[in-house]
Structures are given as C-alpha cells and as structure tokens.
Automatic annotation (TrEMBL):
A molecular function GO annotation: trans-aconitate 2-methyltransferase activity
PANTHER family in UniProt: ARGININE-HYDROXYLASE NDUFAF5, MITOCHONDRIAL
Superkingdom field: Bacteria
One GO-annotated biological process of the protein: methylation
Gene this protein is translated from: tam_1
Protein name from the UniProt record: Malonyl-[acyl-carrier protein] O-methyltransferase
Record lineage: Bacteria, Pseudomonadati, Pseudomonadota, Betaproteobacteria, Burkholderiales
C-alpha cells in the first residue's frame, strides 16, 4: 500500500478524537501568527496545507479578511469536520438563510501532489502537518510550484526532541522507541533550498506539556499518531503496556506531573522571481534589496 494512502487511512481513523489536540494546534498557530506580524504581506489567495479539522482556517480569515482562503488535507474525514465548522456550510434553513458561498474552499489531496495549477497562491501556511509526510523532500518543490512570485511559505513541524521522555520510557521496556522519528531543523532548511525557495529562515523552541497520568499522555500521543504499541491484545501486549506505564510513572517531576517535550520547528521562505535568483553572493546566497523583502503583493 502506498505510504500516502496509509497516512490518509490513519488520519481518517483518528479524526473522531483529533480535537483533543486542538490546544496544541491553537497554541502553535498563534505563535505562527505572531511571526507574521513582522512580515509585510497582503495575500489575495492563501492555502492552509494539512488543514485537518479547520482550526487554523478561521485564524487566517481573521488575519486576512480580504483573501480567498483554501484548506487542503489528505483525510476526507478531517475535511468533513472542517466543513461542519464553517458556518456558511450549515445545512437546512440556516444555510438558506445565510445564502452565501462557503467561507473556505476545502480540497482533499497529498502535500506533495497538490491539485492546483501553478502560481495560484501568495501565502502557503502549514501548521504541524509536514512531519507526517513520508517523503518530505518531495513536498517543498511542489509547494514552490503553486506559489506566485514573491509569495511566502510559513510552516511548523515537530523536531527530533519531540516525545523524548516517551522514547526514554519505552527504551526501558524493549529496544524499539515506539514513537515517530522527526527530521532535524537543518535538514528541513536544506530541503527548502533544494526545493527552489529563497532566503529561508529556520528556528525552533521547546514546549513542555504535563500530564496527570501516563494513560492520558499515551492517549493524546496516540490520537495524533506519534505512538504505537507492541501489537494488539494478548498477555504480552498488556504486560508491555503495564511496564511502559510504570516507566512513565517514574518520570514524574517535583510537581507530581509527567512532562512531555515537544520540539517545535518554524520555517519560512520566499519564492523570488527568476531574475532576482540570479543575483548571488560569493557563497551562492541570494542577494535581495532590503526594500523588496516582504513587500506586499498588489494586483490590479
């Protein structure tokens, strides 16, 4: 089965309980918006890539009220929830009363094979989605293709230190980390450049979420697909789970809660016109006049 199909099926299954992660998506989304405050951009068309259940679409609408905004996700079940969150998609008398087109265009598709013609968007936005793609090196060239000249990509994803306490606890049980591995920030930056993007900026921060019980921690990590156990059912499976719970219990801190690390990597880059890409310094970096960085895009 193709890896992207496995991803689609996995998120279709997780959709029912995925709202448990709204707190993390909302927090990182807010931090991404704060980064946008220093970037001069007035997009006509914006795309939320990996929009999930649509939590970030309303935030984009609030920030860019005049922009046409679309959301893309590989999971049909996630998009169905996003559609229900759109007040102008409501069925029955409420939909007739509003009498307007949907607030957001929702499209199902793969992050590395976008169902759009080239040069369609001024802003690509992706919050905690890129790390789920099995071939991230294929993603950035495709994102570059659908972006207009002087357009911006802004994204966040999990870095390698994410879930380190859970991996350490699992290592006490067997030699399998039972968690996803995430790509290093520097490798993501290299992928951006190889994908055609210019003036990339990468940074990261570490957040700690605390849990009252190991069961709550495992439930939430499983909900977003970061944790897999040793198999289904059986005494061996239950015994493994009990040992993992005990290992997590031993990681309670001085406040009596269990910490879990999330390394959040942020990146943004520009699609420059071809003529500007030709101006390079001695190290091969693009040379851009300061008055052109972040210039608002205006179309007649």
């Amino acid at each position: 089965m193709p890896p992207t199909r496995l991803t689609r099926l996995a998120f279709d299954r997780r959709s029912a309980g995925f709202d448990r992660l709204d707190f993390l998506l909302a927090e990182i989304g807010q931090r991404m918006q704060e980064r946008m405050q220093v970037i001069r951009l007035a997009p006509e068309r914006a795309l939320d890539i990996g929009c999930g259940q649509g939590l970030g679409l309303a935030a984009l609408r609030a920030q860019y009220p005049d922009a046409q905004i679309a959301g893309l996700d590989i999971s049909g079940a996630m998009l169905a929830t996003a559609a229900r969150r759109d007040p102008q998609r409501q069925p029955g008398w409420l939909g007739r009363l509003l009498g307007k087109r949907p607030t957001f265009d929702l499209v199902q598709g793969d992050l590395a094979s976008l169902p759009f013609a080239g040069e369609q968007f001024d802003l690509l936005w992706s919050n905690l989605a890129l790390h789920w793609h099995p071939e991230p090196h294929r993603v950035f060239p495709e994102w570059h293709r659908v972006t207009r000249d002087e357009g911006l990509v802004l994204f966040s994803l999990f870095g390698p230190d994410t879930l380190r306490e859970l991996r350490a606890a699992a290592a006490e049980v067997d030699d399998d980390p039972h968690t996803l591995r995430f790509v290093d920030m520097h490798d993501i930056g290299d992928m951006l450049v190889h994908g055609g993007w210019s003036t990339p900026v990468m940074d990261m921060e570490t957040l700690t979420v605390t849990y009252e019980t190991p069961q709550k921690l495992l439930s939430e990590v499983h909900a977003f697909g970061g944790y897999r156990g040793p198999g289904r059912g059986g005494l061996r499976g239950r015994g493994w789970h009990d040992r993992l719970v005990a290992a997590l219990e031993r990681r309670r801190n001085g406040d009596g809660v269990i910490p879990l690390t999330f390394e959040i990597v942020y990146g943004h880059a520009w699609k420059l016109p071809r003529r500007e890409k030709q101006a390079l310094d001695e190290e091969g970096r693009a040379v851009i006049p300061l008055d052109r960085i972040g210039r608002s895009r205006r179309r007649g």
